[in-house]
Write a structure and sequence with these properties.
The protein is α/β, with parallel strands linked by helices. It has 3 domains: about 290 residues, Carbon-nitrogen hydrolase (Nitrilase/N-carbamoyl-D-aminoacid amidohydrolase, 4-Layer Sandwich), CATH 3.60.110; about 250 residues, Rossmann fold, CATH 3.40.50; about 110 residues, Arc Repressor Mutant, subunit A, CATH 1.10.10. The chain is about 35% helix and about 20% strand. The protein contains 22 helices and 25 strands. It has an 8-stranded mixed beta sheet with strand order 6-7-5-4-3-2-1-16. It has a 7-stranded mixed beta sheet with strand order 15-14-11-10-9-8-17. A 4-stranded parallel beta sheet has the order 20-19-18-21, sandwiched between helices. Helix 4 links the parallel strand 9 and strand 10. Helix 19 runs antiparallel to helix 20.
């Protein structure tokens, strides 16, 4: 019986509906893995079509073509090696399933269908797919062949191989239990699991725990990149065996695909199963879904060393959050083939982070792709750049040659803008090499005020009674100018609103929310402030950094950004955002409790009373903050409905179309807030 097996996982940066391109990437990744000695290669969930097709999954004519694509791909697989690919499978009668096929040379060995569909957070799989019944196996026509379909275990050269498809591994009654009872040596998990802070630890846990509990080699392959605009997939590749972590990839790579391989000892896992009290089952072909193929792997190489255990390095949430934004911006630029970005650079924290991430994205793309491939991508976006001179470092080259062509920034001062923000914006733009401009909006604002006052000459606008209107006209006047520049120079306009402020509507429609893409729209303000300081003091790691280049990017101009208290600069008196709202850490905690845990106002308040916030704030202050949050949240759903497309970074999102849906018109939680009032009254609070 075979003693070892070399397995590989591949992350692929797909594009929805780009079947030919996606298949080509899968094939390139497979060929590299096979050349490195892999016997079995796993690619991500729905990798052939992409995961984020949305209602294009309903287009039957497109879905019906997929089997021929899968069959054609099998012809490229080498004999005695095996490739697992994911795709949507439309069966006769019209039901669509989330499927993965195991391929070898010119053969589709069988198709496994997903049993548990993701329906929480940003996932809506039950809208398009049907779940497969546990234990069911049928025979179906697939590209002119009869193949076994369903809950299958494949036996190749005595090695038993089964699948958990993404969500299958996140549920309590996961299919891995059944696979273990059927003596699986290898469990493959093709996934499309979007990035969220803290998720890597969860994945490593269920992969390593699964490998130990089920006595199997466990291989996990996730999608990579900003696939369909909102979700960014981190490309996690994880391999474990017998409870030991054998492989863990770099994540959030700018490469089109990445490979992770490990040579695994099958005997250790068989010993685990021998000692297990789990009821085991051994059946003939397709009995209990076990399919004996009669095929073999390439001969074992006894000289190939077994893969050692690797450590799990704790996630740095500031580092990974920034990298998500940068990768998302890079993919948006290259996939839309647009000539870079335009940004209203205010000198504040939000727009500064957006600008810095455009800069970091270009440096990281150059480091990962190399000069020729990087310039080819830029050319496809209409950006013509001179090659790097010999010995020129990446950051210097990007700053002087690339950034003036990729990022256009504009400072738009008003009567209430100060030298601090003007100089901060200019300093940052200079350090990163943006094509920077500035102008005043004062005359435009005054003209709008004059026009409005002409309608009611006996009731002119004033700060005492028209505070909100006078603030918002300044924010909105900035929008047409930056849009004009974005359109003229074929740039994607960046909106600068963040998750914290968008959740309570502390943003101006057609002002800071104006744009095509909102890269920090999925990051809380308290984290944004920390990332900016991290850029100043620590710097972001540059993966694949070339010889002679620094391995971290630090931005000295962030000093002028982090020294400021966040302010909108829209009033004639001193104004700070936290004074308008509440401390950002408190706001973000209330947001988390309200949106992620779905707590009621009373439950949010009681959680705060037992939190660290109670050490520095009174119960009355916490009560007032909960009330304020709920009132702002409920009356600003219409704003969240109009937010520009943003990336999901935190555990929650302000995007009502893909995360938390809330009615535009509602009771505004009147009964829930009344209940909170009664609860507070019982504590002697008002």
């Amino acid at each position: 019986m075979r003693k070892t097996l070399t397995v590989a996982a591949a992350s692929i940066n797909t594009v929805p509906l780009a079947v030919k391109d996606n298949t080509a990437l899968i094939l390139e990744a497979y060929r590299e893995a096979a050349a490195r000695g892999a016997d079995l290669v796993l690619t991500p969930e729905l990798g052939i079509t992409g995961y984020g097709l949305e209602d294009m999954f309903y287009v039957s004519s497109s879905m019906e073509k997929i089997p021929e694509t899968v069959k054609a791909l099998s012809r490229e697989v080498l004999p005695d090696t095996y490739l697992a690919v994911g795709f949507p499978f439309l069966i006769q009668g019209g039901q669509l399933y989330n499927a993965v096929a195991l391929l070898t040379h010119d053969r589709v060995l069988g198709i496994v269908l997903k049993q548990h569909l993701a329906r929480t957070g940003i996932h809506y799989e039950p809208r398009w797919f049907s779940p497969w019944q546990h234990g069911a196996v049928v025979s179906m026509d697939f590209a002119g062949e009869r193949v076994s379909v369903g809950d299958l275990v494949f036996v190749i050269d005595g090695v038993r191989i089964g699948f958990e498809i993404c969500e299958d591994s996140w549920v309590a009654n996961r299919p891995g239990r059944s696979l273990s009872r059927r003596l699986c040596d290898v469990i493959l998990n093709p996934s499309a699991s979007h990035f969220a802070i803290g998720k890597r630890q969860e994945r490593v846990t269920f992969v390593t725990d699964g490998s130990r509990a089920f006595g199997a080699v466990y291989v996990y392959a996730n999608l990579l990149g900003c696939e369909s605009g909102r979700a960014v997939y981190d490309g996690d590749l994880i391999i474990a065996s017998g409870g030991r972590l054998l492989g863990l990839s770099d994540r959030l790579s700018f490469a089109p695909w990445k490979i992770l391989a490990a040579n695994c000892d099958l005997r250790v896992n068989r010993q685990i199963r021998e000692q297990s009290s789990m009821l085991l089952s051994v059946q003939d072909s397709c009995g209990d879904g076990v399919l004996f193929t009669g095929l073999r792997f390439r001969p074992e190489d006894p000289s190939r060393p077994l893969s050692p255990e690797v450590p799990l390095v704790p996630e740095n949430d500031l580092e990974t959050s920034a990298r998500v934004v940068a990768l998302g911006l890079w993919d948006w630029m290259r996939k839309t083939r647009t000539g870079g970005f335009a940004l209203s650079l205010s000198g504040g924290a939000d727009s500064a982070l957006c600008a810095a991430m455009v800069y970091f994205a270009q440096i990281q793309a150059l480091a990962t792709l190399g000069d020729a491939a990087y310039l080819k991508v830029l050319a496809s976006c209409g950006i013509r750049a001179n090659p790097r001179t010999e010995g020129q470092q990446s950051a210097d080259y990007v700053r002087t040659e690339i950034m003036p062509k990729v990022l256009l920034t504009l400072y738009q001062g008003s009567d209430y803008s100060g030298d601090v923000t003007f100089n901060a914006a200019r300093g940052l733009a200079s350090e990163i090499g943006a094509w920077h401009h500035s102008w005043s909006i004062s005359a435009l604002v005054k003209e709008y005020i004059r026009l409005c006052d002409a309608l009611t000459p006996d009731n002119p606008l004033s700060w005492e009674k028209d505070d909100l209107a006078l603030q918002n006209i300044q924010a909105r006047v900035r929008s047409p100018g930056i849009w004009l520049l974005a359109n003229r120079y074929n740039r994607l306009l960046i909106a600068t609103s963040n998750l914290s402020e968008a959740s309570v509507g502390y943003c101006t429609m057609d002002g800071d929310t104006s744009g095509v893409i909102s890269p920090i729209g999925g990051i809380g303000k308290s984290r944004i402030l920390k990332i900016n300081r991290y850029l100043l003091e620590e710097g972001l790691l540059i993966q694949d950094s070339g010889t002679g280049d620094p391995d971290r990017l630090r931005i000295a101009a962030m000093a002028a950004i982090v020294a400021q208290a966040p302010t909108a600069e829209l009033r004639p008196v001193e104004q700070t955002d936290e004074k308008d709202l509440m401390p950002y850490p408190l706001l973000d905690e209330i947001r988390r409790l309200f949106q992620v845990t779905h707590f009621s106002p009373v439950e949010v308040f009681t959680e705060l009373l037992r939190s660290a916030f109670a050490e520095t704030m009174s119960p009355q202050q916490l009560l007032d903050a909960v009330r304020r949050y709920c009132r702002l949240y409920t009356r600003n759903q219409w704003k969240r409905e109009r937010l520009a497309t943003g990336f999901h970074v935190e555990g929650d999102s302000a995007d009502s179309r893909t995360y938390r849906r809330f009615p535009v018109l509602s009771s505004a939680l009147a009964e829930e807030l009344e209940e909170l009032g009664k609860y507070a009254a019982g504590m002697g609070l008002s």
